[in-house]
Design a protein that fits this description.
2 domains; 6 strands; Herpes Virus-1; two-stranded antiparallel sheet; alpha+beta; 7 helices
Length: 182
């Protein structure tokens, strides 16, 4: 029953893989070709070694991201995930930003949990769905990065106002706004 298919042999999908010993099989159109572990390794190796395959994968991913239906699905997934576990979402997004910007990141989920409250500590508003009302993980001193004791969970609006401004700069803007009657 093992006919030659590409560089691997078709398998019954029962028992361990002959190459790696895994029991997690990849099935396609009712046939089992290889275990998922070997399949993943093969795709990674091909991506690294074959420039035309890599270019095709990059182009397909870019095209997929431009597709409005794909973006709606991704946005719905992010929204659902953000609502289901906001603390984990804040931690995950901060970790992603730290990696992108090469910022120190040593906080744990417990650190974010300690800073969490049911309302924004700056404005006292409950968390909501708008960008201004969403919880946001703020670095108190942006130069220190995401380290324990240097984070606070505040609303998006408060974080936007704070940005990289110092307390003195925020006071100057507030004084100017009051002077203009705003």
């Amino acid at each position: 029953m093992s006919a030659s298919v590409g560089w691997w042999r078709m398998s019954s999908g029962k028992g361990p893989c002959r190459k790696c010993g895994s029991d997690d099989w990849y099935w396609y159109r009712g046939r089992c070709y290889q275990c998922n572990t070997c399949r993943r390794k093969r795709r990674v190796r091909r991506y690294r070694e074959d420039p035309t395959y890599r270019a095709r994968q990059i182009a397909e991913n870019a095209q997929r991201r431009r597709d409005p239906a794909y973006r709606r699905r991704e946005n719905a997934w992010a929204r659902e995930r953000r609502h289901r576990d906001p603390i984990r979402w804040l931690w995950f997004r901060a970790k992603h930003r730290a990696r992108e910007k090469s910022i120190e990141f040593t906080i744990t989920l417990d650190d974010v949990q300690r800073e969490w409250s049911e309302r924004c500590p700056v404005f006292g508003i409950p968390w909501g769905n708008t960008r201004a009302q969403r919880p946001s993980l703020d670095r108190l001193n942006p130069k220190l990065g995401y380290v324990s004791g240097n984070i606070a969970v505040i609303s998006g609006k408060a974080n936007l106002i704070k940005s990289n401004a110092t307390g003195r700069e925020v006071e100057l803007v507030a004084r100017w706004m009051r002077h203009r009657g705003l």
